[in-house]
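Objective 1b: paired records.
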Amino acid sequence: MDSSSSKGKRKRGRKSNKAAAADQRPPSPDAAPAPAPAAAGRRGRKPRRVVAPADSDSSRPSSPPRGEETKPVANGGDAVVGELGPGAWEEEAVRVVPSMDAVVKVFCVHTEPNFSLPWQRKRQYSSSSSGFIIGGRRVLTNAHSVEHFTQVKLKKRGSDTKYLATVLAIGTECDIGFPIIGIEWQKMENPDLRKAMGMKPDQKGVRVRRVEPTAPESGYLRPSDIILSFDGIDIANDGTVPFRHGERIGFSYLVSQKYTGEKAVVKVLRDSKVHEFRMKLATHKRLIAAHVKGRPPSYYIVAGFVFAAVSVPYLRSEYGKDYEYDAPVKLLVKHLHAMAESPDEQLVVVSQVLVADINIGYEEIVNTQVLAVNGQPVKNLKNLVTMVENCKDEFLKFDLEYDQIVVLKTKTAKAATKDILTTHCIPSAMSDDLKT
């Protein structure tokens, strides 16, 4: 092969660096910037056009924001760096909304009582919440934020200092004190039922099944009354009232919109006559209290039998947060449907039995209601303590539900109590509120 012909042919491959540099011409200063390469897309799609922004006064240097400095960049130009200058941090910190300064953070250490072992307390824990300054060096917060408090501290907004605080008052009724109507009612959707109750075709309402004896409504309402309206709003046969457009809601919603102590006009059908009552609404004393107002739980011990009053915190302590499913059916029925006959009535149970020689055979009695002591009905825990302490009979007899009875020799039972308390490190046979 002729060597001269091979010289005229260019070898395949990449250009040398020198040749590549020679092909690149320096851009003219007047030339428009080249459009950016189109991004790869699907077949058939047109490449995007990148439009250059309109000319702006780019020659004018941008001034740094207030409180910021201009620092030189390494390549010789100047650039705005987001760094606050001397004193600027303090200036920015004080520029806050004035109303937010009234909000404080509340730090609380709680030590809750142990309702299953009422002579003890649970392990302490901490919580944080918000409070609002209301003047006079006082702060308003939620009741549960400082319930069963051991220590309370406050911190102002933007401050790193915490201040010890003193709890002046706790109003649990302000947190959960919504008024209710102390009745149980029945729907009136059946036409035969409505006719039998003397309702006209154009009348609608619900039938009163039961009225709580301790409720203020007991002075106005009676069983088999038909509630036709509440504050001028008609109640349907299914117990609903108009809500938003195209919606209905239970008439208890109307009650919840009232405050405790306010009055409501209730229209009632009784013996085929319409009556109108102006009733004062209030919170009601339930047989099983929904809340214990920050005080230690009450208890009484004799011969190893631990007596306690049932409350919702007690049920939660015994059966967990799902107590509505796990608690005994009889306790749940009383919790949902039982009504107190008097304001001081309580549901008293044998919580547990601290095993000792004197209570052999009774060890498995747990959370069983006490109905009577020596034939006398038990009204509340205080009443039970009084009857046991003043008992002069030879035997103590407790009548329990399910037709169970517990019989103990009175003198032996009281004498054995002291040794049982010592064994279980219990400081007293009864809570402080029962000693007076």
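Objective 1b, second protein:
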Amino acid sequence: IENHEIEGKLMEKVKKVINDYYEENLKESFYQSEIAKRLEKKQDTCDIDWESSFFIWHRPTSNIRKIPNLSEELWLVYSTSNIWVHF
């Protein structure tokens, strides 16, 4: 999560809902991925891009409803702020 001079309290809220999203929607698929299997076996991973990201934007047209499985809490945080998420 990138902080572009956003109030600390809001950033903490964003971190919480993003971590919740990861736990509920991404964690299991990460541990089933090729990169996780290689890491578990202590194999080389330099040929795999293992960054996960998605972007939520509001302008000119919001894409927030296209992100699968967003909780209402996460939707509310983003619909009321101008925060870009990359994780």
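The chain is about 45% helix and 0% strand. The chain has a mean pLDDT of 76.
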